[in-house]
Design brief:
Radius of gyration: 49 Å
Strand content: 5-15%
Strand order of the largest sheet: 1-2-3-4-6-5
Order of helices and strands: EEEEHHEEEHHEEHHHHHHHHHHH
Number of strands: 9
Length: about 425
Amino acid sequence: MSVAATGSPSRYRTLFELARGGMGRVDLAAREDVRFVRLFALKRLHPHLADDAGIREMFLDEARLAGLIHHPNVVGVVDVGQDQLGPFLVMDYIDGVPLSQLVAQGPLPVPAACRIAMQVAEGLHAAHELRDMHGNALGIIHRDVSPQNILVGFDGNARLTDFGVARAMDSGSQTRTGVLKGKLSYMAPERLRFEPFDRKADIYALGVVFWEMLSGRRLFGAAEGDETARKILNEGPPDIGMERDDVPSAVVELMFELLAKDPNLRPQTADDVARRLQTVLDAFVQEGENFDMAAFMEAGFAALKAVRNDQVRVALAASHSTEQTVPVRARSAHMRGVWALVGVLMLGLAVLFVIRANADRNEPAVLPTHASPPVPPPAANPPVAAPAVSAPKPPAEVVASPKVAKPATKTSKRSNRKTTEKLRLWQWR
């Protein structure tokens, strides 16, 4: 199936589903240019949400806002629009896995967890500091920082996705429960108390994600509901140093600050978090532990990567046999235009051929410069000249003279008769 953004000539062919959540689904889509194929992630609202005009508009508004963020640790939004199936977002395709898949396999190495948390913090800071063309702060708050919304590529880089979606859905009373379901564990206490909140709510959520990467388990348990909300509001943050003994003291201290109930006790910006984590990583390097994140992903997901690549190749081949990038109607119109142009060219060539043929027929013949002048036509009855008479010879030779051919005309007979009479006269003398 091909989709096109409103006002855009680009075409995206859906290949297969990548993920599905409470708000919508994400499909892998391909766009073919002249010399290459590029993959994208195409996200849509669920049909029951897409039918709500208010939700659709907020979805598109927030998507356009997220498209303003350009950062290597943020999944870029490259297109947004609507078609017969409703609104959609076209995002950069990240060849990797969600962070939740890594956490499900157990605790991450400390350098790996620190690197991912640092990169997510850098992406968050880029969003928090975003300004419009007039220099006004846009005040973007992600509101849904969670392992499901952090993609770790096979290249070793972590990227944050789904900016502004939770915020947009919070404004819709019909979908608030569905959208927040499953994400309660990452909400800051001030949000649960319905108090004003700012970027520090995202910093708290990052702290929860960081704790889960190091521990390999959910901070507030798998169950969601009133018990989870009570723990967030009333229980103090656990000590990550009690979970494992290889966590540096600088990380333990930072974790307590990230999970503070009071927003004022948390780091002021996500950039502060990133710089402190960079210091921790530099210490690992100085101690000879230069962790290679790409090699870590290759070791853990080489088989998955190979299967994914095969799946993409098969889907691309199948899409070529069943789908066309250009709609049939548009393609037919295009071919009609091509054939019309061919017809005009053929007609022009035919006219040119006729003109040249007429010009060649009317042109006078030109003789070569070395040709002899033309010979006048022969007379109707040309006279036959009498054969030349040689010197007199003996009579025997005269009798044995060659036989004269039979003349073809009367004029030839008279000429021969005269010649014979002259010979007889000569013999008599």
